[in-house]
Amino acid sequence: MHVAARRPTSGRAPRRAVSLLVVGVLLAVLLVFFVLPVIWVLLAPSKTADQIVHDAPLSFGSFGQFGAAWRHLFAFQNGAMLTWLRNSAIYAGGSLVLTLAASVPAGYALALTRFRGRKTLLMITLVTMIMPSATLVLPVFLELNKFHLIGTVWSVILPFSFYPFGVYLVYIYFATSLPRDLLSAARMDGCNEWQLLTRIALPLAKPVIGLVAFFSFVGNWNNFFLPYLVLPNSNEFPLQVGLNQLLTSTPSFNPVAGAGLDITIPELALAIVIAVLPVLVLFLFSQRTLVSGMLAGATKE
Amino acid sequence: MTLLETQRVVVPASRTDAGPRRRSGGRAGYLFVAGYTLFLLAFGVFPTCYAFYLAFTNSMGQFTGLNQFVKVAKDYRFLPAFEHILIYLVLWLVVLVVLTVLSAVLLRSRVGPRTSAVLRFLYYIPGALAGVASVLVWLFMLDPDVSPVSWLLSALGMNSFAAVLSPGNLPVIFLLIAFWTGAGGWIVVMYGALNNIPDEVIEAARVDGAGPWRIAWSVQIPMVRQWIVYMTILAFASGTQLFVEPQLLQTASLGRVSPTWSPNQLAYVFAFQQGDFNGAAAISVFLLAVGLIAAGLLVSRSSMFRLDEK
Question: What global pTM score does this model have?
Fold first, then answer.
């Protein structure tokens, strides 16, 4: 790792060296802290449980062992892993579509049209956006129960589709970076509001739509609390809740229930890798957009 | 909370906001926000009101005033849970603010741009493992049998998983998990905020003879104070919500960790093991009040959430 030092200009070289050392050490320690666990988890499925305990922690086992871990994992409850993967995709995908359909037009309207109740709507949006959603999970459970939705796809997709932060991002984007003259000109040309939204605003809003889609998908893919409450049966679980079930079937963490099952540390590590892979791939591909988008609303005027 | 007006009203043409006059588009506005408004009512406003209703009534639906709150507050598990979360929050906020701001300053001013970009990306990666996956990863990291840093654990006097999971260590364990998944994203945000400080300002300070640490302390940090406040309040609100982490740790530790370690777990136990939804709602309302106060502070104190566009 290179630390860019400016050439010492005076006799303060020792102090500068100490300062540089502090910088280097801190950044390196953080690097190890953030990256080492990720590398360990990626390597663990290639080893047997025994090798994980006795070999060097960051050694690579064998591809054959990796295949064995794969077979054990997918044999668990006759392929429950595949069911969970499919469920996660349905829940996160379905709520993504609904989130975008609801929040993009709403953000546009809040920024660029005038209607009574607009300020109130914006205010409530801000408050619910900052209010942590976990406190509402219990009342939402009861509400879904009243409507007999517990255990259905809707019990997850509908609450997931409420995403005030997405509305806020779209609102900020349209309020700050859509040229008003463009809209006025289009209105002069006889465009109605619907055409304004679909033909002019949406094509210009691709970056922010991508950002909302990313945050919504990642958040819902990783959500545990709500599905854990509203989905009672294993064949309805998303991956996150499935991982919890795998944990209770691992002998090293649960000697009683896990006895005789093939779910050991390599299988559990592989399940983690599979569970985070879609999100990890998204992270790698959308890094640049994200970083610029994370600062939405923080641009210098 | 006021509910939204749903009648269509023609907005008068005279408006107070600056900027070019434009036709209101009022009717279309209603249509565009309709879908989102339904979600907001169904999963934001209604559950909030419902939680309040439950917290002030009993299972027969009779009004009971503050009785539910008194009942849960007297519960022997209530104070410990809130005490745990308080210790955790203090640790979490201090460590988060100090380390994210410090790293962002270093990445901005003390290393080359390429190194800085690579490091920021690598710090950010664990964010992909939020939720259950991150807890499982840390179970491995903290189990001396398999941990790649077992030498470090034994140097700290912990040679068994049980020793690692002793009650005094739990806030630190949750801190590690939260920092691992969340801090990278905040470092990126802080870095961006520092990037927005004009170069001339930094240059002027340098000409005045300020060293890099002095510039960081007297120029850079004050200029991103708003972002630090924003991060603190959001981290505070999410920190009060611990559920997945203690719940999984409880599973993995064969019951060595209390099943009601955090307030959210206590609410869960009230609701699903004791069938007392009113008591659970009272705990939720406690937490909600804390969250709402934080939200109110953020909205009113920070110019970040402008309700009026320029």
Answer: 0.84
